[in-house]
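Crash report, auto-generated. Payload:
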Amino acid sequence: MSGTSVTTLPAETFASPTSAVVVVPTYNERENLPVLVGELLRIPHLRVLVVDDDSPDGTGAIADGLACNHPTRVSVLHRTGRRGLGLSYIDGLRQALSEDTPLICQMDADLSHNPADVPRLLAAAERADLIIGSRYVDGGRIENWPLHRMLLSGFANRYIRSVTGLSVHDCTSGFRCWRRSALARIPLDRILSDDYAFLVELAWEAVCTGSRVAEVPITFVERRQGVSKLSTRAIVESARLPWRLAARGRIR
Ligand SMILES: Nc1nc2c(ncn2[C@@H]2O[C@H](COP(=O)(O)OP(=O)(O)OP(=O)(O)O)[C@@H](O)[C@H]2O)c(=O)[nH]1
Ligand SMILES: [Mg+2]
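Recovered output after restart:
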């Protein structure tokens, strides 16, 4: 579809002093979370909001310990009941929006997203409303992913782009930085997706609500600890979503 404006920003690094909160959804990430939070807290003016889905491995208690050690910089949202990546993000992003932090980031807890890339996403938000850390623009890379995951992710992105007309190259990336004002325009109460498809839906809604989207290259690294939570149910939801979005036909 015409008119969607997605640009690619260069890979140079620069730090931004702007205050930001990073929303991190967790489900069974007990080995990874302390490492991630430790790295994120090295970045000045950054806060972390962990959204834990009652992880059976005790990640929630570990997050509480981190919040206790860093009360002004780490907070935890404990979810119970129906679990899902999208449902967690909706709760976490709502909480982030309830504060007046100008930049709101999202990233995985499993260290596939490099915390050292966060300042680059924050700085790029000076030039766009939504910055996506992208594996599929020049300079973007994936390390150590098995072939079937590479094929699934590459196919998913081509499928979403062709069905919906979205021109984002990495619509399934969960590494993002929003200007608060752009995220506030998204109707979070009308989101259809409970799980991983949420990321695609959110990118779609950003474009539909007039956000300028830019992609910056990242290197995505396969997790070393813990296991993927990508389920067949989530893949089925992700396969259906593009058609539901296309039926709405709201991309300008
Ligand atoms: N709160 C919450 N977090 C989740 C849920 N499912 C996954 N996550 C988190 O979402 C992030 C991405 O999940 P992963 O399992 O790494 O999914 P992925 O990155 O697509 O898959 P891999 O590349 O195989 O790791 C991680 O931080 C997970 O802990 C969920 O149901 N609830
Ligand atoms: Mg992962």
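Post-recovery validation: The domain at 6-248 is CATH 3.90.550.10 (Spore Coat Polysaccharide Biosynthesis Protein SpsA; Chain A).
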